[in-house]
What does this fold into?
Amino acid sequence: MAFLRPPDWLIYSAVLGGLLVLSLSRRENADAPPAPPPPDEIEGALLGPVTPFDPAVTVHAPDIPFQPASGTAFSISRDGRWVTARHVVEGCRRPAILVGGGRAVAADVRLAPRADIAVLLTQGGADAVPVSSVQGLRAGQRAFHPGYPQARAGEVTSRLLGRETLKVRGRGQRDEPILAWAEVGRTEGLGGTLAGLSGAPVLDRQGRAIGVTIAESPRRGRIYTTSPDTFGPAIRGVQTADEPLTGRRVTIDNYGLVADDLRRELRVAQVVCLSA
It folds into this structure.
């Protein structure tokens, strides 16, 4: 029985097709990852540098005995390095990180000289929150503040308004560049003051801490945080390049869940002043 021989053009096409597939399979693939999503339409121009003409907020810090309070801290090294707001622990003789089950871990304190930032040192710690001290912030960009307002779990989201100057008069007198944010959302059912959120990380949409939450103005609906000009120097060298970091993209739809995970993993924790 004779077999029909395929035409020459079909044979040549099959050979050329096989060579093409082989060459493409061996080609180096150096494609870049997908581009990040475009910024929100509300985002504006880059913030300019600190100037003497920035709006000012004046705070009077009377020289009185330390009043115990609670705040928020976040881990930046699993060797036991935490960041909080300076005023939460300044003057406290026995600061501690709450780790659940009625237990607390004692902490030593290192105060930043010219900013409302403090670094707490403990024997071991939680996985670190990635940090970034980039200067490229844009008016209108979103931030997220997970912590312990009113000494209970809660979080806030905000939009960047611009730079201001915090003028502290009295104890710890200084002029400090800060950022002002408009509060645009918070934990459902959380009303009133955000006291206790001081020290919380200011997370960008990549889940990186870009500053520390330090104050609020309830009547104006504003939140005040440190600026990159003070945050970067205060934490320089604390989070090393070999620190294992895991960040999670944060959105207005999931920021409550992300905050819950950070607290559950003790990457964001409550800081208290224990009685002597």
Observations:
- The radius of gyration is 25 Å.
